[in-house]
Design brief:
The radius of gyration is 22 Å and the shape is globular. It is mainly beta. The chain has a single domain, classed as Calycin beta-barrel core domain (Lipocalin).
Length: about 180
């Protein structure tokens, strides 16, 4: 009886598995729209300097999940670290970033390409209830090695005025 049950179970599994494999093979890639490649200019290993040319830190951006997302790993010269997850949401047509820093800041941004730059915006609320708007732009500057400008601005008055939180230049690290 046990031998018959084992054989029957094997036959059921053998019939189901090939159908599932065939269905997966026929499925189109999940992140193959051109929009999914809009932030690819940021991929790579980077040395980052501040507006005055002082070294600010290093950043490693890599594609994950078959190119469906980008993961950022930041290490500042002061020891501050942070990680972000970035992805294009085809259902909304917008890019999203969730940033978590070693200072506890959680920043959720969304947006897209604007005038050749990736621009993401969001808000944070302080423990005292103060709302701060954030606007971060990554602009590819070209060159060899490649460079990208990151301009992070904040506003405490609902976007009437903006102050620079960080203005940095990324220079791609070229390994020989």
């Amino acid at each position: 009886m046990r031998a018959i049950s084992s054989v029957a179970l094997f036959l059921v599994i053998a019939a189901i598995v090939p159908a599932g494999v065939a269905a997966q093979a026929a499925r189109p890639a999940g992140c193959n729209r051109p929009e999914h490649r809009q932030f690819d200019f940021w991929l790579g290993e980077w040395e980052v300097t501040g507006a005055k040319g002082n070294k600010a830190g290093t950043n490693h951006i890599q594609a994950i999940h078959g190119g469906c997302a980008l993961r950022e790993e930041w290490t500042g010269t002061t020891g501050f670290t942070g990680t972000s997850l970035n992805a294009f949401d085809a259902s909304s047509g917008r890019w999203h970033q969730t940033w978590v820093g070693s200072d506890g800041l959680v920043l959720m941004l969304d947006g897209g390409l604007r005038d050749g730059a990736m621009e993401l915006t969001g808000t944070t609320r302080g423990v005292d209830g103060t709302v701060t708007r954030h606007r971060i732009r990554w602009t590819p500057l070209g060159g060899t090695p490649a460079t990208v400008r990151q301009l992070w601005e904040t506003s405490g008055d609902e976007g009437k005025t903006w102050a620079v939180a960080f203005d940095g230049t990324y220079r791609r690290v070229v390994r020989e």
